[in-house]
Amino acid sequence: MPTHCRECLPDKDDDAGHDELAAIADDEQMNALKMVASPATIEMIKSAAAADNQYQLLLRQIHVGWHDAAVISPAVKDYVTFADKLTEVGGLVFKGDRVVIPQDARAEISRCIHSSHIGVNGCIRRAREAVFYPGMTADMKLMVSRCAICAEHQAMSHKEPLMPYTAPSRPRNCPLLMRIATRLNSAP
Asked: How many CA atoms lie within 13 A of 63 on its CB side?
């Protein structure tokens, strides 16, 4: 019987192709991390991850899967709602494109993000581009609120309120409209 062009042929190299795609995705993930973090920072995150029991439980849970709620450790319950977005690459956990920061590295990473004193929204935006951990937004807000430099810049950067102007009561009181009307009336 002839094979039709729209029929799927059995793929003998399905596992090899899947492994190759996974390796490419892992390389891309690590390369993206290298774009935003120095080798020393990446090494600091890796060593903190290796020493963090909760992080190791999270890695184990990612490998085991999240399908059985009875097997999920209470230490990783904060990650259940987005478990489908968590992956492991090179001993690090990623939530999408963002690396999950272990407990012992959070203060240092937060300090690095806040070092430019760009305010609450700027720090949160910068953090959300590359890193994640539960409570990160609250930590950024607290750090900026306690920073004297950020408070000084915040006080200096208040925008002046817009001042309303009085609109002319009739069009003839508006010089611009008077010129337009004059030109329209003088047109041939």
From this structure: 10
Q: Is 99 helix (H, G, I), strand (E, B) or coil?
A: strand
pLDDT score, position 167: 67
**11 three-class SS:** coil
Whether the per-residue pLDDT at 12 is higher than 70: the answer is no
Q: Does residue 101 surpass a pLDDT of 80?
A: yes
| Residue 113 and residue 127 in contact, taking contact as beta carbons nearer than 8 Å | yes
Fold of 21-156: Endonuclease III; domain 1 (1.10.340)
Cα angle value 126/128/134 (rounded, 5°): 130
Quote the CA–CA distance of 100 and 65 in Å, as a whole number: 17
Cα–Cα distance measured from residue 149 to residue 144, given in angstroms and rounded to the nearest whole number: 9
159, 130 Cβ separation under 8 angstroms: no
Mean of pLDDT over the chain: 82
Which pTM was predicted?
Answer: 0.70
